[in-house]
UniProtKB/TrEMBL annotation:
It comes from the Eukaryota. It comes from Perca flavescens (American yellow perch). PANTHER family: CARCINOEMBRYONIC ANTIGEN-RELATED CELL ADHESION MOLECULE 1, CARCINOEMBRYONIC ANTIGEN-RELATED CELL ADHESION MOLECULE 19. Coiled coil: none annotated. The chain crosses the membrane at residues 445-466. Gene3D superfamilies: Immunoglobulins (2.60.40.10). Residues 13-116, 121-214, 302-414 form the Ig-like domain. This is Ig-like domain-containing protein. The keyword Ribonucleoprotein does not apply. Keywords: Glycoprotein, Immunoglobulin domain, Membrane, Signal, Transmembrane, Transmembrane helix.
């Protein structure tokens, strides 16, 4: 009996160590796992789940917040069932969460999850710098996508309702919530909008309304033009000021002898018209146009408002045009007028008006298929030549503003077109005709250049050959007439050597 008690006493330390080992091993094996979102929208609901696999029952799970604050407790009585913690997200919900599991005397703590509270965007709008978004080409424009509330946001931009990316619009810089146009151009003008969005368990977005960006173009240097018209017995002048490029509105002024005589604000176009007093033959002053915008002031070149009536000598010059095969292709007749600011030109063939004077033209007006007028009717082009176009051509001119004014006529010039000269270069039949132009192809030009080069090289080659033969004959003559060096005294050799040196130097200079 006593021996049995002693044996039990000897087993007590072993049992104590075994119990401690069981407790330690149980505590080590209890490893809860916490799952849940790391981002959540404000006012949404989130669910955290905690489970300690292979733990003995019952298991108590506690969800802990920052600072060890207990949020909720759930007991698992069935085994291997995760504990769910359902939370409504508020602004104070952001922080770190972990789960504590307890079974018997064993306790385990999970890894932490950091929850970020995302505020969905609201009241999205586009702001600009400058404001309003109106800028001149080459300047800088910055658009910002602004929201009243929102966090963890991303942004998408749209130009004329098409998404803007770095690939589709390489000249536009997208950075954070801004769209930057560092060197704005007219093609950047249009309607812009943006969308702010955030993503957590789902995606929330807010879109802005469209904002129009206006890109103004700098106006070009103004131009000036004047015209005169006749009304009854009096005359009336008109000055036109215009610019070929720019964005209205612009202020257009007319200055006469450096004094402003008229001003117009053009809102739809870049042109203005000003009536002025004008009389043929009189100098009415020096006129200039001035264009003014909020950033520019430009002046046109000065123009003297003087109308010179048509007069003096009038003559016709004829120029024939040929193809590469030397066949006549066309004829060009030019009406040369000595003086006149606004001449009106009429052409006649064999004293018949050609073409009809009812056809007005400003640049080129083909009246018939083989006639064309250009240079304000001062040039007549016979585009198709046949014997029927032969005849006497002349031109006449008068002031374009006076339909009843006198004509000034040129002498007649004969243009003769035959079947023979259609296939060759005809001789000019008038002293006013200019030399014919022949258009050569590339092969003909190269051939002529090669022949010219050959002719230049021929005399040079002949000279070189002649010089070579001349030198050979001179050396042969010396070798034949002079005795050998062995038979001559030293003084004779020196004398001969000097003579040869003199001859050699003379030949070199002469060559």
């Amino acid at each position: 009996m006593r021996s049995t008690v002693m044996k039990n006493l000897n087993l007590l330390p072993i049992l104590a160590l075994a119990s401690l080992f069981i407790k330690i091993s149980g505590s080590i094996s209890l490893r809860p796992v916490l799952t849940g979102p790391d981002m959540a929208h404000l006012s949404s609901r989130v669910v955290f789940q905690c489970i300690a696999p292979d733990s003995s029952l019952p298991v108590t799970y506690e969800l802990m917040g920052d600072g060890g604050v207990l949020i909720d407790t759930v007991a698992d009585l069935q085994g291997d069932q995760p504990a769910s913690f359902n939370l409504k997200v508020t602004a104070s919900s952001e922080g770190s969460y972990h789960c504590k599991a307890t079974t018997g005397r064993s306790t385990g703590v999970s890894e932490s999850i950091n929850l970020s509270v995302v505020t969905p965007p609201s009241n999205t709008r586009v702001t600009s710098e400058p404001f309003p978004p109106v800028a001149y080409e080459g300047s800088r424009v910055v658009l910002s996508c602004s929201v009243t509330k929102g966090s963890h946001l991303s942004y998408t931009w749209f130009f004329n309702r098409k998404e803007v990316t770095s690939l589709t619009s390489p000249l536009l810089l997208l950075t954070a919530n801004k769209l930057v146009m560092s060197n704005v151009a007219p093609e950047h003008a249009g309607y812009y909008s943006c969308m702010a969005w955030s993503r957590a368990q789902d995606t929330r977005f807010s879109s802005s309304s469209e904002v129009q960006v206006t890109v103004k173009v700098y106006v070009s240097k103004p131009r000036i033009y004047f015209y005169i018209s006749k009304e009854g017995a009096s005359h009336r002048g008109n000055v036109t000021c215009w610019s070929t490029r720019g964005s209205p509105p612009v202020n257009i002024s007319l200055l006469l002898d450096d004094k402003e005589v008229g001003s117009v604000t053009a809102t739809e176009s870049l042109a203005a018209w000003f009536p002025v007093a004008m009389e043929p033959g009189l100098d009415m002053g020096l006129a200039r146009c001035r264009l003014t915008t909020e950033v520019q002031e430009l002046m046109s070149e000065p123009v003297t408002l003087e109308v010179v009536p048509v007069g003096g000598d009038v003559k016709v010059e004829v120029e024939y045009l040929y193809r590469a095969d030397s066949k006549m292709a066309a004829a060009m007749l030019s009406c040369q007028i000595s003086r006149g600011t606004f001449p009106y030109v009429s052409w006649l063939l064999n004293d018949s008006v050609l073409p009809s004077e009812t056809h007005e033209d400003s640049h080129i007006q083909p009246v018939l298929s083989h006639y064309a007028l250009t240079d304000r009717r001062q040039t007549l082009v016979l585009a198709k030549l046949s014997p029927e176009e032969s005849g006497y051509y002349r031109c006449r001119s008068r002031d374009s503003y006076d339909d009843s004014g006198p004509w000034v006529e040129s002498a007649a010039v004969l243009v003769r077109v035959t079947d023979w000269n259609l296939c060759s270069m005809p001789r000019a039949t008038s002293t006013t005709e200019s030399p014919p132009k022949v258009f050569m192809n590339t092969i003909e030009v190269i051939s002529i250049a090669f022949c010219c080069l050959l002719l230049l090289m021929l005399p040079v080659g002949v000279g070189c050959v002649y010089k070579m033969f001349d030198n050979k004959q001179g050396h042969a003559h010396i070798a034949t007439t002079n005795p050998t060096p062995d038979a001559l005294p030293l003084s004779a050799l020196m004398s001969q050597s000097g003579d040869e040196q003199d001859d050699t130097d003379w030949d070199s200079v002469g060559f």
